[in-house]
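note to self: the first set is below, dont mix up w the second
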Amino acid sequence: MRQIRNLSLSFLYGHSIVPYRLGLTFFLITGLCSCGNLTSTGLRGAGLKIGTNVTPIGEIKAKQDNQAIVYIQGQVEKQAPLIKQWAYKIKDSTGKIWVVTNQKNLGEGSEVVIKGKVRYRSIPLAGKELGEVYLEEE
């Protein structure tokens, strides 16, 4: 048994353990950071551009699959309280869309990134379709 223990630790003899710990710490931190979601809901910042995952609001159409998940980035224009949720009108340079969420701390004028499912509510009225596309936050 003692011989096996000596063989397993023999690679450390003559070497400092500090580089191994630094390397392990680096990989651990890198792994944890890569698991994070940089486009989390409510992420704010002036001129923040997340990347190619952000869908311009103008490209979100009523005919999209109701299960489509998109990220949008924009500025809060209006807010409306609902029974247990909030609705926010988010605008970017391509358009505007309502977002239904549990968050209640998004102030008008704040810059946000939101992940949500594309939804469409049909409202037929007097032979016309007055439905609206909106996002339901994930």
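second set (the one i keep forgetting abt)
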Amino acid sequence: MSQRTRSRRDDRAEVILDAAGAVLRRGDARALTIDAVAAEAGLSKGGVLHHYASKDALILALVDRKLQHLRAGIAACEAERAGGASGLALGMIEHLRRSYCEEEDFSRALLLASAENPDALAGYRAFVAERLARFEAAEGPAGVGAALFFALLGVVMGRSLGFHDLSAAQIEPLLGALERAAQELG
């Protein structure tokens, strides 16, 4: 396969993922169908299936893309902070502060769409496991890193699942308290 053909194929896959994201943003997890994505992308159903063999494959690709974006955002925020044991925690807090109310409908719909997909859940679990391992490895009082991580995860998941609808202004005091706790890590 030539470089040009591969590039065009990769571009088409991105167009399909963008279309799937648009379908999720407008609707909910049930709205995500191959037919809906094909219509949104301006492709045939076969064109979508050529790149993503099933709805589950499409969901898995969306989860992977979301987690890559999340990792990159956290890494960028972490790089802005002082290193040390508290760097990851402070980076995650800053990323959450910057993106707290961003794309909550999409995140909720994607999470619900992936809830019954073991491969997609494996992606989320791997993300949680890698972050938790880094928090647990942080120096500082025993358990503080893991407690910080699960507090941050609870804030995000609570918002994503609609358990609370605290505004960014309302969540700021909590983030400030978590930031002070993170600074204890060193």
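remember for set 2: The longest helix spans residues 55-80.
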